[in-house]
Amino acid sequence: MDLLNAIVALSNFVIVPAVAYGAQLALGALGVTLIYGILRFSNFAHGDTMAFGTLVTILFTWWFQSMGITLGVLPTALLAIPFGIAGTALLVLATDRVVYRFYRRKKAKPVMLVIVSIGVMFVYNGLTRVILGPDDRNFADGERFIINARDFREMTGLEEGLAIRTTQGITVITAVLVVALLFWFLNRTRTGKSMRAYSDNEDLALLSGISPEKVERVTWLIVAALITVAGVLYGLDKSYKPFTYFQLLLPIFAAAIVGGLGSPIGAIVGGFVIAFSEVAITYAWKKVLEYAMPQALEPDGLVQLLSTDYKFAVSFMILLVVLIFRPTGLFRGKSV
Amino acid sequence: MKKYLAATAVCALTGGTAMAQDVPVGIIMGFTGPIESLTPQMAASAELAMTEVNESGNFLEGRTLVPVRADSTCIDSAAATAAAERLVTSDGVVAIVGADCSGVTGAVLSNVAVPNGIPMISPSATSPALSNAEDNGLFFRTAPSDARQGQVLADILEERGITEVAVTYTNNDYGKGLADSFISAFEEQGGTVTLSSAHEDGKADYSSEVASLASAGGELLAVFGYSDQGGKGMIQSSLDTGAFDTFMMGDGMYSDALTADLGDDLNGSFGAAPWSEGEGADRFLEITEEAGINGDSTFTRESYDAAALIALAMMAGGEATSQAVADNVMNVANAPGEKIMPGELAKALQILADGGDVDYDGATAVELIGPGEASGTYRYYEIKDGEYSTVDFK
Predict the structure, then answer these.
(1) What CATH code is carried by the domain that includes residue B110?
(2) Which candidate, A335, A133, A85, A121, places its Cα nearest to that of A249?
(3) Where in the sequence is the domain holding B180, given as residue range(s)?
(4) Across-strand partners of B360?
(5) Which residues of A touch B (CB under 8 A)?
(6) B88 φ, ψ to 5°?
(7) 3-state secondary structure B246-310
(8) DSSP state for residue A71 in the 8-state scheme
């Protein structure tokens, strides 16, 4: 019984939140990795593109709600995601046409494109704030919990409760679907294969007749979809605030680099590595150990490796360690 | 010719004495900076009290209080010090209403007020650190110290028989100060704090903070944060994970938006918020409405009281000097004496002129304790059916 309690407590405070957070990071990191692999630069505007995609989705969600269209127990935002993706796609394609293409034509160095993307970041930043302002927005509706802590306790008779929010469930399911779709696209379709070829060896790909314009366009479209889905899931699960999306840039990049830039599988693994280490290293293990260990060995202290204030530092630490010992990341991506 | 000379001399003399009849009083507040939306009403309320004193004609044989404004910026101690320096050296103020924010108030006190012997009455600095500041008896405040709030909250827990709590506070001077004062008061009463952990405002996710607090355990979670910021996030996350279902909240958490958002989930939670109600507060609203000032704005009552106390202290001391203010503020603010409401300053001045005693109550039921700070009235509330309901006043 005690061991069960330990498992439930661990699931409630570590596993469930970390899985949901990891899925959100993985989707974000996939976008970063695709841009790095195919367009060959680190896109610092990623976090703010995410905020923009979420913003469009929120506006459509509100519009649907005002017309009385809802999804019942599911959040209405799911219905609005396609429109969010369309809006984001328009934005990034326009940016590519106006800004990035200019530098690509001039064969600008990747580091120059990075600086350009910082400029784009500031523009998006302002755009989002002009439209919806800098405040917190809550746009989740529908049923809040799949199972809540109180019901779980009553059902099982355990001391510990387990809560799974609807948004956490949706996050994981959506992430799995999106990733499966992406891999199918990259490995099975002609366009996907040409994208991989372009990423592996640009010159060879051009020689074999692959149109760079098309590859770039498709990449931006996929990135827009990934980014909007990631942003909306994060916003549903937590809350929408432009500034926190900007801050997400760090863990997302950490995830992409840890996994190996340019490697889609790496991005997913990296997302979960970062999420689990952030949550587990700052977790106070006292409660779990109390249940799991014999009474004589019960800890007095909190058994917390790092205070939660250092959460962001964990991403940095992992990033540093990986860059020192395995600069290409866990899955042999491109060296940074 | 002689007559003419004499006449001009007399004129010059009376002219000179007319100038000497003016008593400059500094009002140093953050007219620019983070609380610039509050300070105009605060300053106007302080000036309202001075106007009332001047119009009564009872003040020290017809002398006139002249308010002089200066900008404290609320956050820039160097700028506040320079502004206060100007008030003292070139405007020659005898007393200061202000400053407003705790940080600049401490700077003005130690750099300007103490070296020059100028008394200050702050309407809005609540940091507990100011209670122990080196002030030579020159610093007073009409706002209660958060040390008092910590004590009030600890008392509430004792009343409820709660002995073990976890604490979370917003990571700034206010949150840290309030958490520290609460913890020391609570531990003195024999309570145990399982974990005191800071949270940052403006984050999207508080699950890891809540996870460590839940691991530490406790009968409830004490939240010293802001209702529209991390404080709400902590409560929301605790409710979601089932980590805590009862909360005790500091004054920053009191807002109708909080109960509207979280509603019935908060039932049974409780807390304290500074409160002024009753005759004094009602009277104050009447006179500010007449004067065209928004008297509902934060700290306007305290500002009015601060200025009124300075005038009454001068009257009680019989002279418009800094020394008279410093010596007499405590006497006019506290019993014994006749209770004085806002708008009754003329009556108070008359009583003092006749050699009587006053107990200035003002808009906030002023009662200065300890090192000259308001005891403050707190409303102890509990949330029932998603609404605030008053349990007691403390």
Answers:
(1) 3.40.50.2300
(2) A121
(3) 147-274+377-393
(4) B340
(5) 12-14, 17, 21, 136, 145, 148-150, 152-153, 161, 163, 165, 234, 238-241, 243-244, 278-279, 282-288, 302, 304, 307-309, 311
(6) -75, -50
(7) CEEECHHHCCHHHHHHHHHHHCCCEEEEECCCCHHHHHHHHHHHHHCCCCCCCCHHHHHHHHHHH
(8) B
Q: Which residues in chain A have Cβ-Cβ distances shorter than 8 Å to B243?
A: 13
Q: Could you tell me the pTM of the whole model?
A: 0.72
φ, ψ (nearest 5 deg) of residue A207: -65, -35
- Name the minimum distance, in Å, from the CA of A13 to any CA of chain B: 6
Judgement on whether residues B289 and B246 belong to the same structural domain of the protein: no
Q: Which residues of B touch A282 (CB under 8 A)?
A: 208, 212
- The total number of structural domains that make up chain B: 2
Same domain, B269 and B289: no
Of residues A148, A240, A285, nearest to B242 (C-beta):
A148
Compute chain A's Rg from CA coordinates: 21
Examine the domain organization and report whether B348 and B248 are in the same domain. no
Contacts for B240 with CB less than 8 Å, ≥ 6 apart: A145, A148, A149, A163, A165
The series of mean pLDDT values per 10 residues for chain B, 394 residues long, is 53 46 92 81 94 91 92 90 95 93 91 95 88 90 88 92 92 84 92 89 80 87 85 88 89 80 86 80 91 85 94 93 93 89 92 91 87 84 87 82
